[in-house]
Amino acid sequence: MADAVSVFGGRAPAEVQQLAKHLRNLDRDTLSQMLSAVLRAVDGLDCRESLRLISESGLVSEDSFNHAVAGLYALLKEALCLPSLRQEVFNEDLRALRVSEEFIADVSSAVFGSRQTSINISDTHRGPTLAKIQDFKWRVDVAISTSSLSRALQPSILMQMKLSDGHLHRFEVPVVKFQELRYNVSLILKEMNDIEKRSILRIQD
Known about the structure:
COMMD5, two-stranded antiparallel ribbon, three-stranded antiparallel sheet, alpha+beta, COMM, COMM domain-containing protein 5
């Protein structure tokens, strides 16, 4: 059984590694019903009745049923939490887990079809959103201080931010705060770059 599965960033949980063994005891109709029920569970919805009907149908043993549900739940929950996951990568993960080819399309469609449905629902029910930054400018301004006998140059950063709602904001930031901002932005960009280098999130041409 494959130890490394990219969707988990390494070794898959035991219930996922054993998934293929128990899926062999299912037919495609039963798997489809099970996937629908598990997706409801991942979404936090009540799926007990659906699972009860599958369990009592006599089409699958109790042992295979329990293991298959546990494995599918762990797999689908993890996959749906990764927005950058590509379907091709997920399909290869399923092959690494020894899932039969006839079931790969069903499991993959459950993940990516559910994701698109969630996106569409989210777009439809999306409420008012905050304005976005359309343009951002900054420049260094130097003021001459005459508060002491020796005149001193006091640099500051003038910033101008234009939002998507048409509002224009101008403000002044001390150099020290500006350096903190630069450092934090650089840190975030570095962390994003580190994440992108991980195989699970790598964008391939």
